[in-house]
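lol ok so funny story. i was supposed to be doing the assay writeup but got distracted and ended up predicting the structure for this chain instead. priorities right. anyway since i did it might as well share w the group, maybe its usefull for someone
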Amino acid sequence: MRALIVYHTCTGTTARVAQSMADALDDARIVAFDQISADMIQWADMIIVGSPTHYQAMPQALRLALSRMPRGCLVGKMVAAFDTSFRLWRPLMRMTAAHQVLPTLRRLGGLRLARPESFLVDAQSNLLDGELERAALWARALVAQVTEWVDAFEQRAAA
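and the output, tada:
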């Protein structure tokens, strides 16, 4: 399973989470969002996009970059989204960057693999204890889920 982990970062925290995910996977590439290419997208089976949450939304730079991507460019790709965010009061949990990134990835043709995930930071944008480990586990769980789906599909096709 080839995973492309794409991130936008301001303080480096989201990049650290993305790197933890890439390190946990057998076949992963990691790239900053402003350096992504069509060849990288073509290479990947699964695309994971991460962003910090700014004022309960995705950063404007990422919003603009996503709006410039060609419609249908993610057709056939499994997609997931994560963010780095403060722990929010339960009713506000959906007001994070990942909750805005994932629908955008789906509009570009991606197939949703998982619900958006938040990795928690403190007031100085430092990751809370255990978040890098949790990011690695989440990435491995995504790959395991895709592998299960592919195996089930192949079994049905063979029957």
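Residues 147 and 153 are 10 Å apart (CA to CA). The radius of gyration is 15 Å.
back to the writeup now i swear
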